Every structure is written in C-alpha cells, then in structure tokens.
Amino acid sequence: MEDLKGRYRQSLLYDFYGELLNEHQKEVYSAAVFDDMSYTELAEEFDVSRQAAFDLVKRIEKKLESFEERLGLVGRFVTARDRADTLKTSIDSLKQEIDVSVDDIKKKKDLKEKIDNIAKVSEEVFDFF
C-alpha cells in the first residue's frame, strides 16, 4: 500500500471513504484533488484564508488515512487488483502456449503446473474477500 502515492492514492481513498465525509469536506477535497485547485484557489472558492484551506485539506487527508488504517479497504482492493493482474497474465500466457501444438509430455506437464498456479491465485483472490 505504501507504493501508492500522490493523486492516485488520494482518489482511491476518496472513492472508498468519501461518503463518510460531510458535504463541505467532500466539496473541498474534491476541488483540491480532482479539480487540482491550489490552496490559494481553494481559499478564494470557499472564502477562507489560504492557511485554513491548507489545514482543512490536511485534516481531511488525515481522516481518510485513519479510515484506511482501521478498515483497510484500499489495501485489500489494491492486493486483489494485483492478484487479478497476475491471473490475467497467467491466463494469457497459457492461451498462447495452448495455441502452439502440444505434443510432448514435458510440455503438457508444464501447462498443467501453470493451470494449477492459476487455480491457486484464483482461490487467493476469492478467499481474500
């Protein structure tokens, strides 16, 4: 989860926990993150000082991070997405190998091991939730 930085992480946190914010917090955070407004622009838009805009955005970020620490939904989502990507890559690789004629026994054994790996990753993805 630590590898998620910047706007992408902010948007995931907002997507998962934004409804737990009040309307004003949603408006300010949305403007800061999705509209890419500076603190000066936020201050003008919401009729507050630049420092107040900065403090509010930081408090909202802290609140969203606190939700993530307790609930871990973003981390679980990222892990599941990564596992699903691994699964897709394995399936694509297997499809390519199946397209090539499979005559020798070693090749069949290798394909069976790949299929077993796909099944294991699939179980992990579904067990995760």
Q: Would you kindly provide a written description of the structure presented here, covering whatever features stand out?
A:
With 129 residues, the protein is mainly alpha-helical. 81% of the residues lie in helices and 0% in strands. It has helices at 6-17, 23-33, 39-46, 50-71, 73-99, 105-128. Helix 1 packs across helix 4 and helix 2 crosses helix 4. The longest helix has 27 residues, at 73-99. The radius of gyration is 22 Å and the shape is elongated. It starts with 5 loop residues before the first helix and ends with a helix. The mean pLDDT is 86.
In short:
With 129 residues, this protein is mainly alpha-helical. It is built from six helices and no strands.
Topology:
Layout: H1 6-17, H2 23-33, H3 39-46, H4 50-71, H5 73-99, H6 105-128
Helix pairs in contact: 1-4, 2-4, 3-4, 5-6
Summary tags:
mainly alpha; elongated; 81% helix; 129 residues
Rg from Cα: 22 Å
* Beta-strand percentage range: under 5%
Largest sheet: none
Structural class: mainly alpha
Low-confidence stretches: none
